[in-house]
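note to self: dont lose this again. the chain is below, predicted strucutre after it. 502 aa total, dont forget to put it in the shared folder this time
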Amino acid sequence: MLSLFDQGAFAPCPAPFNLAAHVLRRATDLSQKPGLEVLGPGGSQIWTFAQLEAAVRGTGTGLLQQRLQPGQILLMRLGNTVDFPIAYLGAIAAGLVPVPTSSDLTEGEVAKMIADLEPAAVLRDPEVTCAAHPNQILLADLQAMHALPPCDYAMGDPERMAYAVYTSGTSGKPRAVAHAHRAIWARQMMVDGWYDLKAEDRLLHAGAFNWTFTLGTGLMDPWTIGATALIPEPGTDPSDLPALLKQHRATIFAAAPGVYRKILKTKSPLDLPDLRHGLCAGEKLSAHLHSAWTKITGTELYEAYGMSECSTFISSSPSHPARGQALGQPQPGRRVAILGPDGPVPQGDEGTIAIAASDPGLMLGYMNAPEETAARMQDGWFLTGDQGAMAVDGQVSYLGRADDMMNAGGFRVSPIEVETQLSAHPGIIQVGVATVEVKTDSHIIVAFYTGPRALEVEELQDFAAQKLARYKQPRAYVHLPALPSGANGKLLRRALPAYFKG
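---
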């Protein structure tokens, strides 16, 4: 038997369609129900579904009053506040195309995005680093839009572009991944295949408002089915999360594995009577962490695998728990295969994890990079670049990257991008970067370099901070007389971690 798992075609997205209208489809029926609670030590800031929809559609009106036209791109340079998802959905409601970005980006990184996208405007919090652009709509103006009359939802072809997100390209240049309005329709496959999410649930997501994992799993998916989203206020320490989970009666908890790890390290009490289970994604969940959480809390963790190009499509769930250290199985409605050079490999063999190019959640493509888009497609499949193996029952085990892409706290980072920026330092001749496991389940990005002499770590850290977002910056630097290379002189990145002494 071949490594091909077909869960059957998912229901087609209706037309005409608008992503924001779909997310807020329950707002009228649940007008006074809390849709969002921002949790802090002094209490909650509560937004009802009616208030959320009014703010979203008022923002849509305000953006159109700025003479912006449907289809135009808006670069988002906003911080970790509720203004982020409201502006995001407001733009989509009006037919505009928002591009959310990390607030950690440097001015130089933002400048490259502006040159790449040529956005019609930048939605800007003055406290967030930005680059020059002639049309910046400031946070105070966005907030004032909340009270404007509601815009009409811009209904249209579900295949048209709704938003784009940036991901590290394998070439080392971050790429904008364009997604259609239908992407939110496809996320319904996660409800049963991962979340087991119900309208009465209270889902607490530990991430920031301006992280795409939070935007989807923590906000839009709960709102779509009428559940309440709980988000800790900015600056909340992981040690405070157990108390918030209990106090606000969270029934589902979602976070990257690193957050679960930090909670367990605090040794805080984990009496969570209302919690049904936890969700994790962004990086591989280790068996050690999974076992520790389950033992201490008495609740299960369900892992999901995906990427910016297709969100999650393989996962475990209460109805289909993962077996052993497997990721889980393809979600209902997905078609997934493990591919070799000649197509699906025999069950149990290693190959590249791939999802059908016809999947309704798959990207439209990389913006301004048709060759890179085409390179990821093969005979009707999208190649993830990750290696895996599929068992007889469809459960998929993760076997690592086929290339050298790194994972930094849930963000995929290209080593080429980091190396390119660091190589500009006058004291560096050659540089290679890789992730290194410094202790159980804890990985950091390390830069290995050659040069006339070992440089001061503080000097290298300051240089990196000027060039790279914080999550891309190495946490350690190692000076070597030479970097490992193959017979053709090519850098062997996978050999680098052996040179790290800790």
